[in-house]
Amino acid sequence: MSQMRLNKFLAHSGIASRRKVEDLIFSKIVKVNGVVEIKPQRLIDPTKDSVKVNDKVVKEEKKYYFILNKPKGYLCSNVKKGKEKLVIDLFKDFSERLFTIGRLDKDTTGLLIITNDGDFANKIIHPSANLEKEYIAKVKENITDTHLKTISKGAFVENKFVKPKRVVKVRKSTLKIIVTEGKKREVKTFIKRANLTLLELQRVRIGKLRLGAVPYGFAKKVSLEHLSNSI
């Protein structure tokens, strides 16, 4: 294995985020080969060097990747508030630290990627990725050309004017909306602006990755290679 920076190794090991890892290093509780190390950029070889935090040996965390068909009623968060259900609760029998890549609203269903790989997650959510996200929206009303035109014109979301990449009427009360911005509640804002009443919203695609036949509320374990080729 090639060398890597100490802070990156600790972050990959699931100890903490990259920023918090540096705080640990500066606190002088990290040792490399028995010697306190205070430089986050110190290069180590995980196969040869011994790294300890508070005198406990640290090993690089194995990376896991899942495609989840998110059910309604679950929050995309790692912070528990009261009796709220979290997406990661669906993985309670899994011992590794996991998180969602991006978010879906509590009442939105469909495709989510779950992982413990922070580097991969950052590549996916970074604006430069410019990934398409495809949603299927069911509304109460019969969809007209006026509705389609209004949605296509875009709207202000989080103080920025954005437009969907494509809007298609699938059935009389069902829309397909493709976006690339990924702003918070972007699709819902488009639908509301068209005076449509949203009944259901499901994400079915990220980039070239499709939800496929993953059952509602279930997850499918996949490889990094599969995700990289699909996204």
How would you characterize the overall build of this protein?
Helix content is 21%, strand content 32%. The protein is an alpha+beta fold and 231 residues long. Strands 7, 10, 11, 12, 15, 16, 17, 18 and 19 form a nine-stranded mixed β-sheet that branches. α1 (6-12) crosses α2. The chain is elongated and about 70 Å long. The mean pLDDT is 91.
- Major β-sheet profile: 9 strands, mixed
Q: What fraction of residues sit in β-strands?
A: 25-35%
Fourth-level CATH superfamily of the largest domain: Pseudouridine synthase I, catalytic domain, N-terminal subdomain
* H and E order: EHHEEEEEEEEEEHEHEEEEHEEEH
The CATH architecture of the largest domain comes to: 2-Layer Sandwich
Q: What is the CA-CA span between the terminal residues?
A: 26 Å
Overall shape: it is elongated
What is the helix tally? 6
Remind me, CATH topology of the largest domain? Answer: Alpha-Beta Plaits
Total count of strands: 19
Helix percent band:
10-25%
Supply the CATH class of the largest domain.
Alpha Beta
Mean pLDDT: 91
Q: Gyration radius, to the nearest Å? A: 21 Å
Q: Which structural class should the secondary elements be placed in?
A: alpha+beta
Unreliable residue stretches: none
Brief rundown of the structure:
The protein has 231 residues and is α+β, with helices and mostly antiparallel strands.
Could you name the key traits of this structure?
about 230 residues, alpha+beta, Structural Genomics Hypothetical 15.5 Kd Protein In mrcA-pckA Intergenic Region, Chain A, Alpha-Beta Plaits, 9-stranded mixed β-sheet, 4-stranded antiparallel β-sheet, 6 helices
